[in-house]
Specification:
The protein is mostly beta strands and about 150 residues long. Helices cover about 0% and strands about 45% of the residues. The protein contains no helices and ten strands. The strands form three sheets. Strands 7-6-9-10 form a four-stranded antiparallel beta sheet, with no helix packed on it. A three-stranded antiparallel beta sheet has the order 1-2-3, with no helix packed on it. A hairpin with a 4-residue loop joins strand 9 and strand 10.
Amino acid sequence: GTLLSEIQLDATANVDGMFIYDPPSGTLLPAGDGQELDVLFSPGDSTNYNSVNKTVKINVTVVGGINNPVISNPRIFPVPVLDELTIDQSVLSVQGQKIIVYIQNIDGRMMYSLVTVNDGDPIKINIRDLPSGIYILHLQTEQVIFTERFIKQ
């Protein structure tokens, strides 16, 4: 139930340059062993140094039932979305429980994130500034993970 961050994506080099990770920071991997994390290092001095790729494996374990199937999915609306995405999260968790919400674009780039507490009211997310396209909504509680695609017009 942990999003990939600099804790897992921690490649180093002894020269200046840039690391590009696949999957990127902010991705929530499903439970399972031997999942691949890829990194591309592009050196700042490409005259004297070459770019290099590396793949490592990571095991993602189930903790506290985080990957138990969702019994009843929350409803998201309207579909497609223009300015505001509404999430009826009343079926997702009990009141007072923490909910992690994040939206990724279709390429896996984190576009929005929020940590909130279920107060019984729908979650409203202003996505007016997001470009039109297909996005992936992730909701995570102590018991469940919910993922749904939606279209922003």
